[in-house]
Fold this protein.
Amino acid sequence: MALSFSHDPELTLGRKIWQIPWMFVLLVAMTASVGFVMLYSAAGGNLDPWTSRQMPRFGVGLAVMLVVAVTDIRLWLRYAYVFYGLSLALLLAVEFVGTVGMGAQRWIDLGFVSVQPSEIAKVTMILALARYFYASRVEDVGRLTHLFVPALLIAAPVILVLNQPDFGTAALLLFTGVVLLFLAGVRAWLFTAAGLAAVAAIYPVWQFVLLDYQKARVLTYFRPENDPLGAGYHILQSKIALGSGGLFGKGFLQGSQSHLNFLPEKQTDFIFTMLAEEFGMAGGFGLLGLYLLLLIYGFAISLRCTNHFGRLVGMGVTSALFLNIFVNVAMVMGLVPVVGMPLPLISYGGTAMLMLLFSFGLLMCVYVHRDVTLGPGAASGD
Amino acid sequence: MHRDSDRYRLFSRRSILLGGGQAALFAALAGRMYYLQVVESERYTTLAEENRVSLKLLAPPRGRIVDRFGRPMAVNRQNYRAMLIPEKAVDVARALDTFGKVVPLSEAETERILREVGRKRRFLPVLVRENLTWDEVARIEVNAPDLDGVSIDVGESRHYPDGIYTAPILGYVSAVSEEEMTGDPLLELPGFRIGKAGLERVHDEALRGRSGTSQVEVNALGREIRELERREDQPGTEAWLTVDLELQKYTARRLGEQSASAVVMDAHTGDVLTLASTPTFDPNSFNRGLTPEEWRNLIGDPRSPLNNKAIAGQYAPGSTFKMAVALAALEKGAVTPDSQVYCPGHLELGDATFHCWKPEGHGTMSMAAGIVQSCDVYFYEIARRTGIDRIAAMARRLGLGAKAGIDLPGEKPGLIPSRAWKKKVKGESWQAGETLLAGIGQGFFLVTPLQLAVMTARLVNGGKAVRPRLTKQLVPFDARETAGPDLPAFESLDIHPSHLELVTNAMAGVMNSPRGTAFRARIEQPGRRIGGKTGTVQVRRISKAEREAGVLKNEELSWEERDHALFVGYAPVDNPRYVVSVIVEHGGGGASVAAPIARDILLEVQERDPSRGRSQARLPGDAVSGPAEREG
């Protein structure tokens, strides 16, 4: 499979830096700053232990993002499968040497830093799928046999992450993959069929596969009110905290529910609740507005890009970001079951932050190389 | 590039579709936020408040009870208590088991605690053990890590410094029983006490005070973070009594172990200086909780320690009733002060013979002599001439046969019979002989010692309808200065002053003339001389045969068959101020037993009279001093 790149000698490093969408960078920084402020509040008005550690991580992430933004996009195209393979290896490694945190094996200790391979897999899967469909002809995409490889590309990390178990990230991987299949042009009826098949599978799985305790767990996922002191406790407390925030909130550092520990995991999964408690609906809408701008940027960059790899990577990153935001916010408001899912750029966490900024770097890279022709990948696909 | 443009069109179309879907989901998020934070906000705000705010009750200190000079009669003492919050102890039974290893608990205690745990709300503490010693407190603290839900607190418990002397007046407090729970959370506070008898019961609401509240912010584990708001409790009202504590103690000691009671009253104001009933009980033991054995002893004692004889003991008045008969006769004009009646030692009426206490007879008697020597025949005769209904009416005017209205629970009304009463209750018509017996206060008549004191007061204060009172005033804890309440102006009883003078002078003669029945109990000290009237009440019938064989002396009878000894008196004779009534159940003769006691009490009360220089130097306060002075 020979790929032919048409090199544009005009695109020097200086020009690339000039091309970086600085407005986007500013939005990212603003959103992250909201995170710092909330982490400061979560610690009861202290920089320690969260803000002080999150800020340098963001700094590193920002640097990585900018470096990635000016790298040659062809590098990512060429090594997409390699990175994907590496991340799968890490996921496998977690199975054996991972440490258990919050009841699941998610972390791998590299000695100097703990990483979450599932976060890495989110990005490498996008790259691999984009690479695959970039090289596919539009007619091929319509063929079922042609979907075997991308299905495998999606299934492998999903199954490994599910096994940890980390339902949230697995779902995110699955949906991101499906979105990319959709954008790549897979026939619409296939999605309909898959959806129907999934619904049809619910009954036999419920009846014959799931054990009673698993059923109970699934039920509480959907009806947390039935178990206010057990599994439903978190979501109920979250709704109380959020609802009591009202229109303009209780004020910075004044979120009684959050500060009195009624709210669980307030520095990670439930940080949006704390924001909404302290700054009310106004604050919540403000953050959602920032996210909306980021997403619009993502869409604009993807649509503006002239090469298919860039488009798919751009939309993949943007869709992953959207899913990430949506699942987290919907979860804390009791719209979807509680799954471990941090809020992008805000929640405390190193790997997630780093990989998110890395993916933003890819998005900017797509923008910087929006007019670069990667060659008729589809034409020479075989 | 042709194919790529196809691909791009597809991609763009689907991207826009996707964007639309995402926008819709974002709108859903915004809508949900609006629903939670605006539409349902109030509900969640309430839930949030409930979440973080926990209300604690602060028990108010019970108001003190002090005597007329401000001397404490009922106070509060610090009390170290071990409490258990069921909610915090995972397993209550096991927690008590562990506690029992540190400070032994009896089976009854464990049972009570478990009962209370079942009764109260789980976040309210339950009293495990109170009045802990320092040693026990230390042992509990050391073992604190193993005692989940157990904590030590300092409460206050009621204490009666002179409990056994003041019990008839004060009553006692004890734990709230299940029937007494009104839903007022204050009553559910561990170890909370309410007044169950006496003034503690009468003034319970006022003494209780108002509970304060402390709103504390708690975290998800129930640990208190800080106090948000505190409404201080309002200590109970302080009750100032009319009682003179030292006189009360003196009187109770003077009565000793006998089944007796005595009331000392100010004849003009109705202030009850002493209201003693012996034997009595220790109210502190009621507060603590009686052991079954203590309870059996109290119930089984024939001298009925739980009965306040001063207000609930009903006795025939005997000869102390003669003043009422004399006044009724004078008012009717049945006799004049100088009318003569001859006493041969007995009086015949139909077939019946009515004996005088002096078998050989008193000879010719005037009214004064009849009272001084307590001649029964004289009073048989004038009673016959006066008629029962007039005697009964006079008795009621003097305060007999109806509740005196003292501020104590459980007062008995006594009984003054009349024709109508007998018809109604017994269904029989009144017998002439019964009127004769009425002349000497025997028959159906029943009075209480308090009523006798009231009667005496009304005789010596110029015929004013004085009423007794124990509570001088209730002083709210934050009162800076309070004027004592105005004394009620007592209405006149419309008894002719010369009649009253005659009777009171005759009472002076009882003590001070050598022929007087209580001459031996006189006070010779000038200015402190006293007047009075003895009474001896038979509790058994003396048969004719027995009378012929010679009446047995009291000492020869069993205790239950001996006569009641009565005495009413006043002091000083020149300007009467204090009245006393004494009854010694089965004590024997009024002159030999009751009169000396009354004499001692009346001497003591005059010695203590705050208007005298000597007493003023000795006493901490003064009868007219207001509570404002106590702070100094």
Remarks:
- Chain A touches chain B through 47 residues (CB under 8 Å).
- Confidence is low (pLDDT under 50) at residues 1-6, 377-382 of chain A.
